[in-house]
């Protein structure tokens, strides 16, 4: 028994979990290795159930240790988002809620618990339970969320229910991507008309014909007299801003792509050093990317 515990220690269990090695495969690996080292597998008392038992024990010890050591002093922002993911058995799908906190020198994933449904009340209960489990309720000062109805509903939305459970004021930080998608979506409808299609047909056609498009034949701002007149002296300011931002690290590739496209439009010499990438997602749900 002692020998088995020495083999199935924290380091080994962590490695097996990271590499998704099953309990059955683990049993075979340990038994074969023991035999090669001259140790009888019977001495180890190794079995599939013993491996599972030790794994659960180690995981619990590690989880408890992480929670005890996590004691941030800075105010925290709570982020959550639900996704439909395959269940642990892989035979069906289930709603899971990713919950994490950020702050000064803090970026911590707390849990990804399953939900009975995707309603705002269920999400609020899950977030509150996890915050209590980690003893972080009083340290939460704001939260970041998407703009779906289950989150922003004024009666049973997750943010409303969660606010009541926390029993203190919290700053709302709605996702900038979701907000800007609504604004840009309306701008698109105003310019190109409304559509009932789940996809942006213009972008879809553009992506499908991408291989036939001559990417080197780029027309700059000066070929359009109206744009040239509108930009005027602001062109220099915009170029300066874009070049400064491109020198900095951009955490998202779509931000960098936008800056590069602006640079190509306003600076003819930039077309040689920048490659225009193929369009990405074009559904209405994520078309801004």
TrEMBL record:
It comes from the Eukaryota. This is Uncharacterized protein.
């Amino acid at each position: 028994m002692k020998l088995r515990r020495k083999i199935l220690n924290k380091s080994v269990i962590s490695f097996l979990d990271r590499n998704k090695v099953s309990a059955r495969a683990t049993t075979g690996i340990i038994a074969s290795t023991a035999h090669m080292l001259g140790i009888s597998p019977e001495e180890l008392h190794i079995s599939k159930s013993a491996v599972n038992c030790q794994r659960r024990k180690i995981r619990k010890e590690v989880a408890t240790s992480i929670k005890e050591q996590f004691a941030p002093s800075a105010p925290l922002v709570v982020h959550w988002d639900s996704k439909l993911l395959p269940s642990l058995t892989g035979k069906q799908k289930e709603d899971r809620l990713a919950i994490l906190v950020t702050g000064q020198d803090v970026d911590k994933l707390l849990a990804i618990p399953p939900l009975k449904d995707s309603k705002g009340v269920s999400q609020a209960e899950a977030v509150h339970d996890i915050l209590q489990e980690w003893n972080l309720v009083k340290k939460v000062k704001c939260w970041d969320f998407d703009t779906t109805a289950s989150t922003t509903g004024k009666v049973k939305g997750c943010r409303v229910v969660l606010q009541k459970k926390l029993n203190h004021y919290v700053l709302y930080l709605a996702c900038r991507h979701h907000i800007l998608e609504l604004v840009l979506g309306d701008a698109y409808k105003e310019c190109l008309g409304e559509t009932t299609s789940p996809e942006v047909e213009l972008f879809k056609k553009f992506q499908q014909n991408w291989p036939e498009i001559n990417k080197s034949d780029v027309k700059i701002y000066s070929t359009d007299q109206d744009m040239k007149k509108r930009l005027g002296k602001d062109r220099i300011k915009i170029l300066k801003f874009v070049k400064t931002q491109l020198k900095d690290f951009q955490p998202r590739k779509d931000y960098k792509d936008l800056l590069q496209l602006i640079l190509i439009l306003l600076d003819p010499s930039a077309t040689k050093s920048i490659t225009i990438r193929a369009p990405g997602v074009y559904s209405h749900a994520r078309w801004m990317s």
